[in-house]
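Worked Example 4.2. Consider the chain below.
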Amino acid sequence: GQDPYHGDGQANGLCFSVADGIVHPPSLKNIFKEIESDLSLPIPESGNLERWAKQGVLLLNAVLTVRQSDAGSHAKKGWERFTDAVIKTISQEREDVIFLLWGGFAKGKAKLIDKKKHHILTSGHPSPLSANRGYWFGNKHFSLVNEILLKMGKEAIQW
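Applying the procedure from the previous section yields the following structure tokens:
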């Protein structure tokens, strides 16, 4: 993601995730719709994605803070250097990481990743604007991630 949700009480520290009891923002609704279509799983009541993080999914925004009701307000203030370093370090220190790069901004991070050591899946962003133009729905990233993991002898993610 680019930066955290900027609505009151929405952001919980994980990209696309919201605390229990918070209405699902549009991008998260579209993520859940894709999971429902891809894996035939019901849309969960909670938008809290900590369950994914506990399975090893790193949900990282490029910018880690935002002013309330002001999307992008903390962009280009230094966070990108830090989060780019996180991506580079993961790429250098690990092998067979599956990177999901959603949207043009995220796709730009591919240059930080060693494509010979890792798997990169790209698609449009799950935001309504991109999703409704046909760039998100049908990417099947959730089943693809699990296929890759199983081929490597690892456990599938319980999305």
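The chain has a mean pLDDT of 96. Helices lie at 26-39, 50-53, 79-93, 104-107, 128-131, 141-151. Compare this with Example 4.1 before moving on.
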